[in-house]
Amino acid sequence: SQQGEEDPQALSIQEGENATMNCSYKTSINNLQWYRQNSGRGLVHLILIRSNEREKHSGRLRVTLDTSKKSSSLLITASRAADTASYFCATGPGNQFYFGTGTSLTVIP
Amino acid sequence: ETGVTQTPRHLVMGMTNKKSLKCEQHLGHNAMYWYKQSAKKPLELMFVYNFKEQTENNSVPSRFSPECPNSSHLFLHLHTLQPEDSALYLCASSQVPGTGDDSPLHFGNGTRLTVT
Q1: Taking burial as the number of CB atoms within 10 A of a residue's CB, which of A21, B23, B54, B89 is the most buried?
Q2: In the prediction, which pLDDT does B42 show?
């Protein structure tokens, strides 16, 4: 399977804390993407990191990529209740994007 | 508004029915996708269309039949479905790699399908 796999499956934190979720994948990649999905909605793109990048920031999001370990992490700093959602990583050859089962994040107010 | 519109939002159908899901994108993209999302399973990539041509069919049963009449519209025709086909069906669009900057997927809000 080429899909990314997120870890942990579920994460519960207090508002203001940081949340870290991880992604592992199996094949070589051009880029890796992170998405968020609120309940009953479609996925929303958060951030893309290319294979030649090691770290990328966007607002409260920080993504790292280690191609030698075929892994990535997503850090959300100073979490808010509105960050409650499922988070997915996606990789794939060309535009065949494959997703895992996601990390379900709950931020408690 | 996501720029990708799916209709209907909810659909209940019997196993002998024929129905169609519709997807329209207003983003000027040239690739469109169907994904299936079932509880506790990874999103399943079903079909990929680049420039209206189908480039990927991930061993999807023939009871699912896609149609892409132009780069803005995508349909999924459903026929003789099984209860296990009940799921959230998501449409997405993007630029085809190599035709511009790295292009992430833009998703619609999906059609929740229940097969009875």
Answers
A1: B23
A2: 87
Three-state SS at A55: strand
CA distance B75 to chain A (A): 17
Closest CA to B4 of A94, A82, A41: A41
Whether residues A45 and B40 touch (CB distance < 8 A) is answered with no
* Chain B: closest CA distance from residue A108 (Å): 23
Token representation of residue B1 = 């508004």
Q: Cβ contact (<8 Å) for B43 and A88?
A: yes
Chain B residues within 8 A of A48 when measuring between CB atoms? 102, 104
Cα–Cα distances (Å) from B5 to A44, B22, B36, in that order, read 14, 8, 16
What tens digit of pLDDT does each residue of B20-76 get?
A: 999 999 999 999 999 999 988 889 999 999 888 888 777 899 999 999 999 999 999
Residue numbers in A near B47 (CB within 8 A): none
**Neighbour count for residue B65 (Cβ, 10 Å):** 15
Contacts of B90 in chain A (CB under 8 A): 42-43
